[in-house]
Write a structure and sequence with these properties.
The protein is α/β, with parallel strands linked by helices. The protein has a single domain, classed as Rossmann fold (3-Layer(aba) Sandwich). Helix content is 40%, strand content 17%. It is built from eight helices and seven strands, in the order αααβαβαββαβααββ. The chain has a seven-stranded mixed sheet with strand order 3-2-1-4-5-7-6, sandwiched between helices. Helix 1 packs antiparallel against helix 2 and helix 3 packs across helix 4. It is globular. It starts with a helix and ends with a strand.
Length: 225
């Protein structure tokens, strides 16, 4: 995302008081301006019309990125971090984002009801394998014809990038930015098998950008009827 656009979005995360924390502002500005995630997800969802459920939405940056890219899908973000959800909702109100909402949901306990497209971005590695399976099965069941499941995740391929990804995820937990540490990274073969069994068309695209991480964009589509 162009730096000026990232800065404009980040301003919606500034504190209400002069002495308040500017962490979210700096994080949003750096994340939007440097991470290839948002351009990759916008590309994956461009041309779709189904409403989007963002599982593990964090600060809700995807909602801003979609609107900045001219993608007006109905958006609902859920996360188990109530503080981030509250700040995401405040930033969306400040930005005047239409048809955008946020809720606090513990995905380990189950996914909310939804029909349409689903985004699972940097989430799977933070939940146990059985919870991963339940989350993926729930997301697949939500897909309507033509809708897309968009995942960004590190993959367990044993390479150097995979080791760097795990180390940074652990460090993020130690800093307190993430409220959980990495549990299990999925494998590409396991994801492909799950999507094939569900009758989905899937593609895997490296989303490294200029980072050292083993991040991949996975797009699974329910064929149109």
């Amino acid at each position: 995302m162009p730096r000026e656009r990232a800065a404009a979005i980040a301003r919606h995360y500034l504190p209400e008081r002069a002495l308040g924390s500017r962490w979210d502002y700096h994080y949003a500005r750096a994340k939007l301006g440097s991470d290839p995630l948002y351009a990759g997800v916008c590309d994956a969802l461009r041309g779709t019309r189904a409403p989007l459920l963002d599982l593990g939405c964090g600060l809700g940056l995807l909602a801003h990125a979609l609107r900045a890219d001219g993608i007006a899908l109905a958006y609902r973000g859920v996360d188990n971090d109530a503080g981030k959800v509250a700040r995401a909702a405040r930033a969306a109100r400040r930005a005047g984002l239409a048809d955008v909402g946020f809720d606090t949901v513990d995905l380990a306990a189950g996914a909310p009801a939804h029909a349409g497209s689903v985004a699972i971005l940097d989430v799977l590695q933070f939940i146990a394998p059985d919870a991963q399976a339940r989350t993926l099965d729930a997301a697949v069941a939500m897909l309507t014809p033509g809708a897309r499941l968009v995942i960004r995740t590190g993959l367990d391929d044993g390479g150097r990038r995979a080791r760097v990804t795990r180390a940074v995820d652990v460090f993020s937990r130690l800093l307190g930015w993430m409220n959980a540490g990495p549990r299990s990274y999925p494998s590409a073969d396991a994801l492909r098998a799950r999507f094939d069994a569900a009758g989905l068309q899937a593609e895997f695209t490296p989303l490294f950008g200029n980072t050292p991480f083993n991040n991949w964009r996975v797009v699974a589509t329910r064929p149109a009827a």
